[in-house]
Design goal:
The complex is a heterodimer of chains A (about 625) and B (about 300).
Chain A lengths: L5 E7 L24 H12 L4 E5 L10 H4 L4 E4 L4 H14 L3 E7 L2 E7 L17 E3 H5 L5 H17 L15 H10 L8 H21 L16 H4 L4 H4 L16 H5 L10 H18 L14 H17 L7 H8 L7 H19 L8 E9 L2 E6 L16 E5 L6 H10 L7 E5 L2 E5 L6 H11 L15 E6 L4 E9 L12 E4 L12 H4 L3 E3 L51 E7 L16 H11 L1
Parallel strand pairs in A: 1-2, 1-16, 3-4, 3-16, 9-13
Antiparallel strand pairs in A: 4-5, 5-7, 6-15, 7-8, 9-14, 10-11, 10-12, 12-13
Helix pairs in contact in A: 5-12, 7-11, 11-12, 12-13
Chain B lengths: L7 H6 L1 H16 L2 E5 L3 H13 L3 E5 L6 H6 L7 H4 L4 H12 L4 E4 L9 H4 L4 E5 L12 E8 L2 E7 L7 H4 L10 H16 L11 H14 L9 H9 L5 H20 L8 E5 L4 E5 L10
Parallel strand pairs in B: 1-2, 1-4, 2-3, 4-5
Antiparallel strand pairs in B: 5-6, 6-7, 7-8
Helix pairs in contact in B: 3-6, 3-12
Classes of the chains: A alpha/beta (about 625), B alpha/beta (about 300).
Organism (chain A): Citrus sinensis
Family (chain A): Belongs to the ubiquitin-activating E1 family.
Protein name (chain A): SUMO-activating enzyme subunit
Chain lengths: ~625, ~300
């Protein structure tokens, strides 16, 4: 049977190849930039293993076509994803299909490989993963204390306001307490007909760095315990007439937008240099000018893209000027780009090590060598004499709502909170269920789907706006709600407990979910406690007042590398799993490789090998 | 490539790794010269890693012709006779490696290490070789790495100062060695091969009974419990000569990291022996340097 085994693989990746991938994603070449990762990877692997069967899907792994039936084909699933949302999704599908999952991640010199088998080990979600970082709205709009706050302001507020969708809500002027001045403020950002571009630039500059700061500065309460920001006006920083200083922006020359750069225009060559306030200001104005001169058509539709040189220049400049205002140190374009683009640093060596470890675990899975499954951690510094540290997998967490289906509890004010709040803040944000079905007993309160008729859609829309106790099937204290995701085949039961009051600071959502713990985000300053809402780095500004959308911030794919908590029991030695063979013992065994990147970060490449010789070797040794 | 600043091309290509080790380290890498002897799978992995990292140059030595064993564990050699026919392993690997990063100068040097003189070595910052390569004393500044992967194990020996293939390291009194089978294996093998007058690494299954006998004798002579050196480990290491590709990736990765650390002067180099065994999944670092040795 061993010698007859054919190796088949399916590879899923929605991403295309970028230059910055090439330092480690070695199946790709310069000439492949812009092409589908899945397809090019497939071609490259076939060159050194032509006998393999590989199918490449240039698609998002969350696409409904990759359903439980699809996953059931495989003996093992290997993940090389770069965001928490996709990982949770695949985890749930693998549980539903009862297919072992080998998970992995790297950041710089750190990495880990973990194995997840339903019923035998923890699933990927048994141990809570850190939530992506969010920042309170007030910190971004009024009281920044770190450079990242300035970046978020520059990217999600200013850039979005000037170049993005005009219809989006934007907190840029949220500090204006006066309603009439808000209406006036709307006009401020729009360039008037025939307004001179230099004049427009300076007007914007003066408004956001000068006027807005003065307004904010006038609020005594805010600055009681903080240093007041200094307003900055263009005339003070750049008294000369700009058109004499800057490079040429010839209107009539056709320029490839990818090469349009304010830095080039001003002769600032090194992205590692930290600009001065003056240089930042010049870049700010020049970048603005270039957008209007060379990329006018895109204005109104642009969203920030870390690979858009001009956008990065603008955001860096704007963040720097704001930083100068608030006494925060300025940063280079290189650093700013990393922060704004949530770039994960990555090297070829760590990826190679992790890839090797993935294959080792995958082979154990294929050989059903259950006792030998390991979670392996690649450490940066030697710990207990080890650089590679294997740990036995733990048993499933009995209170994991994903794999153990333990009910959760939710404290909520059922007379005040609407169904919409429940859906956004709990179902989507916390539970990661994006296409939910919500039931109270046999009553459907809410669902999403393509097959709904108009009446149903209207019904559900109406339900969203009702408070829980007023729903057609009232939700009150003691109610049990069932939330399902049909694609993930996940069912989650939630016991509702009514509670009147919630602490505005500690429980800004007005709800408390328990029975499952989400790890707190990385430590932030105390201010995060004092603000009602939060804003994420990367979320579009319409969600500014909510926690950011799940895929906005790329998770660093690194759970804490410190020793896993010892409170759960390890898989006991000598327990042989009677794993039902998911396939029917046919000769074709398939494996799946997933490389689904929303961004280019850390695509793990798994090298397939000729399984025959491997298993033959193993047999010989026994 | 040799200017003081990184070029725009380098900055774009190396962006993600510059964020790990910084622009200065990247510049140092771009000026470094590596010599590699013996292109087995692990070494191929290592070469891939440092070419991607952007070293200045890489020189390959391996005059052997391509065989099925060669391309089964070395992904730089396509299993296509039209491609590799008539070429040495080094030549085929050189062609593949150039492709990974056009900014690195990859070349082939014929011959073997023992035929080279000090002047030749002086051009290099790092030398990586297999266990069965003999070589002469090198200049002091060259960093020296020995690597071997067999079956499901792999090892790296790091020498940043003393440059002889370190028989000396393994002649450390056994009681002074940490109690790890791997070290004892190394010692055992070295001793055995010394006694038999053969090249290091030339041991095979026929030798197993003799090795086990030797182990028993040595353990008795040194008053060491024989069970410290498990027979099964010795057996695996002697019988399994082929490389296991995932182990090549792991060891080639660790080796790549070590060499990058040495060149960039960033990060603590491992001292001085690394061992990885799929059976227990541990990547262990041991210090087997002889405390009494003076650096030369």
């Amino acid at each position: 049977m061993v010698s007859e085994r054919q190796l088949e693989a399916i590879k899923i990746d929605m991403d295309t190849i970028e230059v910055s991938n090439l330092n480690r994603q070695f199946l790709f070449r310069q000439s492949h930039v812009g092409q589908s990762k899945a397809k090019v990877a497939r071609d490259a692997v076939l060159k050194f293993r032509p006998q393999m069967s590989i199918t490449a899907h240039h698609a998002n792994v969350k696409d409904p076509k990759f359903n439980v039936e699809f996953f059931k084909q495989f003996n093992v699933v290997l993940n090389g994803l770069d965001n928490l949302d996709a990982r949770r999704h695949v985890n749930r599908l693998c549980l539903a299909a009862d297919v072992p999952l080998v998970e992995s991640g790297t950041t710089g010199f750190l990495g880990q490989v973990t194995v997840h088998v339903k019923g035998k080990t923890e699933c990927y979600e048994c141990q809570p993963k850190p939530a992506p970082k969010t920042y309170p709205v007030c910190t971004i709009t009024s009281t920044p204390s770190k450079f990242v706050h300035c970046i978020v302001w520059a990217k999600d507020l200013l850039f979005a306001k000037l170049f993005g969708d005009k219809n989006q809500e934007n907190d840029l002027n949220v500090r204006s307490s006066d309603a009439s001045s808000s209406a006036h403020a709307e006009d401020v950002f729009v360039r008037r007909k025939d307004e001179d571009i230099d004049q427009y630039g300076r007007r914007i500059y003066d408004h956001v760095f000068g006027y807005n700061i003065e307004v904010a500065s006038s609020n005594e309460e805010t600055w009681k315990n903080r240093n007041r920001p200094k307003p900055i006006y263009s005339a003070d920083v750049m008294p000369e007439n700009l058109t004499e200083q800057n490079g040429n922006v010839a209107k009539n020359c056709v320029v490839d937008t990818s090469s349009v750069s304010a830095m080039a225009s001003l002769g600032l060559k090194n992205p590692q240099d930290t600009w001065t306030l003056l240089e930042s200001s010049r870049i700010f104005l020049e970048a603005l000018k270039l957008f209007f001169a060379k990329r006018e058509k895109e204005i109104g539709n642009l969203s920030f893209d870390k690979d858009d040189q001009l956008a990065v220049e603008f955001v860096t400049a704007a963040a720097n000027i704001r930083a100068a205002s608030f006494g925060i140190s300025l940063h280079s374009l290189f650093e700013a780009k990393g922060i704004a683009g949530n770039i994960v640093h990555a090297v070829a060596t760590t990826n190679a090590i992790i890839a090797g470890l993935i294959v080792i675990e995958a082979i154990k899975v294929l050989l059903k060598d259950t006792d030998k499954y390991r979670m392996t951690y690649c450490l940066e510094h030697i710990t207990k004499k080890m650089l590679l540290m294997p740990v036995e997998p733990y048993e499933p967490n009995k209170s994991c709502y994903v794999c153990s289906e333990t009910p959760l509890s939710l404290e909520i004010n059922t007379s005040r909170s609407k169904l919409r709040d429940f859906v956004e803040k709990i179902v989507k944000a916390k539970l990661g269920i994006n296409f939910p079905l919500i039931m109270h007993g046999s009553n459907l309160l809410y669902e999403v789907g393509d097959d709904l008729d108009e009446v149903e859609v209207a019904n559900y829309a109406a339900n969203l706006e009702k408070v829980l106790s007023q729903l057609p099937s009232p939700v009150t204290n003691g109610t049990m709600l069932t939330v399902e995701d049909l694609q993930q085949e996940l069912t989650c039961n939630i016991n509702i407990k009514h509670r009147e009051e919630f602490d505005e600071e500690k429980e800004p959502d007005g709800m408390l979910l328990s029975g499952w713990t989400q790890a707190p985000p990385a430590k932030d300053d105390k201010q995060s406690m004092n603000d009602k809402q939060s804003i994420g780095n990367g979320g579009d500004s319409s969600n500014a007042l909510q926690t950011e959308p799940a895929d906005a911030v790329k998770d660093g794919e690194m759970e804490e590398i410190s020793e896993p908590s010892g409170k759960k029991r390890k898989l006991s030695e000598g327990s042989k799993a009677s794993i039902l063979d998911a396939t029917d013992g046919t000769r074709n065994h398939k494996e799946v490789e997933k490389l689904d990147d929303d961004d280019d970060d850390d695509d793990d490449v798994v090298m397939f090998d000729d399984l025959d010789s491997m298993t033959n070797k193993k047999k010989r040794l026994q | 490539m040799d200017g003081e600043e990184l070029t725009e091309q380098e900055t774009a290509l190396y962006d993600r790794q510059i964020r790990v080790w910084g622009a200065d380290a990247q510049r140092r890498l771009s000026k470094s010269h590596i010599l590699v002897c013996g292109m087995k799978g692990t070494v191929a992995e290592f070469c891939k890693n440092i070419v991607l990292a952007g070293v200045g140059s890489l020189t390959l030595m391996d005059d052997r012709v391509v065989t099925e064993e060669a391309w089964s564990a070395n992904f730089l050699i396509p299993p296509d006779e039209n491609v590799y026919g008539g070429k040495t392993i080094a030549e085929v690997c050189c062609d593949s490696l150039k492709d990974f990063n056009p900014m690195v100068r990859v070349s082939v040097e014929k011959g073997d290490l023992s035929s080279l003189d000090g002047e030749f070595y002086d051009k290099f910052d790092v030398v990586v070789k297999l266990i069965n390569e003999k070589c002469r004393k090198l200049s002091k500044r060259v960093a020296f790495y020995t690597v071997d992967c067999r079956d499901s194990c792999g090892e790296i020996f790091v020498d940043l100062q003393n440059h002889k293939y370190s028989k000396e390291a393994i002649s450390v009194p056994w009681r002074a060695l940490p109690r790890k089978a791997s070290k004892l294996y190394f010692a055992l093998r070295g001793v055995f091969e010394e006694a038999e007058g053969r090249s290091p690494g030339e041991i095979s299954i026929a030798d197993l009974p003799a090795v086990l006998k030797l182990k028993k004798e040595l353990c008795e002579a040194n008053a060491l419990n024989a069970s410290h050196v498990t027979d099964s480990l010795l057996e695996r290491l002697i019988i399994g000569t082929r490389e296991f590709p995932p182990v090549c990736a792991v060891v080639g990765g660790i080796l790549g990291q070590e060499v990058i650390k040495a060149i960039s002067c960033k990060g603590e180099p491992l001292k001085n022996f690394f061992f990885f065994d799929v059976m227990d999944g541990k990547g262990v670092v041991e210090d087997v340097s002889n405390p009494k040795k003076e650096s030369k």
